[in-house]
Write a structure and sequence with these properties.
F420H2_quin_Rdtase, Split_barrel_FMN-bd, Nitroreductase family deazaflavin-dependent oxidoreductase, alpha+beta, Pnp Oxidase, Chain A
Length: 134
């Protein structure tokens, strides 16, 4: 099973032929710029398509009390790169609004039911992120 750096490398090398389908769901690659280092960081994330030009991901970090670093990076710089299989594109990341979050959360929890468990593990409100192609 692919995970972490190896997951990213195999996904990139194979245009997602290896790594897009993962544990019964689908994964994209999100690249952010480190808010402290200025270096590019790429993370595999479970996703759902939202309309024609957007995708949703969840900043869960398994229900940890602190958000994942990729989320704090995109808060500092919302200009990101996304790869969905062989499709690589620039996107702007934003946190879902309170009005749109419930429906997006529900769709993501259908994709990966553990998200509901992750939310129960922390007092932090886990955000849903919308990645909009630019």
């Amino acid at each position: 099973m692919l995970f972490g750096r190896e997951h990213v490398e195999r996904y990139e090398e194979t245009d997602g032929a290896e790594g897009h389908d993962w544990q019964g769901t689908t994964v994209l690659l999100l690249s952010t710029i480190g808010r402290k280092t200025g270096q590019k960081h790429t993370t595999p994330l479970i996703y759902r398509k939202k309309g024609d030009d957007a995708y949703t991901v969840i900043a869960s970090k398994g229900g940890a009390d602190k958000p994942p670093l990729w989320y704090t990076n995109l808060q500092a710089n919302p200009e990101v790169e996304v790869q969905v299989q062989g499709d690589r594109f620039a996107a702007r990341a934003r946190t879902a609004t309170p009005e749109e979050k419930p429906a997006l959360w529900e769709a993501m929890a259908e994709t990966w039911p553990a998200y509901n468990d992750y939310q129960k593990k922390t007092e932090r409100e886990i955000p849903v992120i919308v990645l909009e192609r630019v």
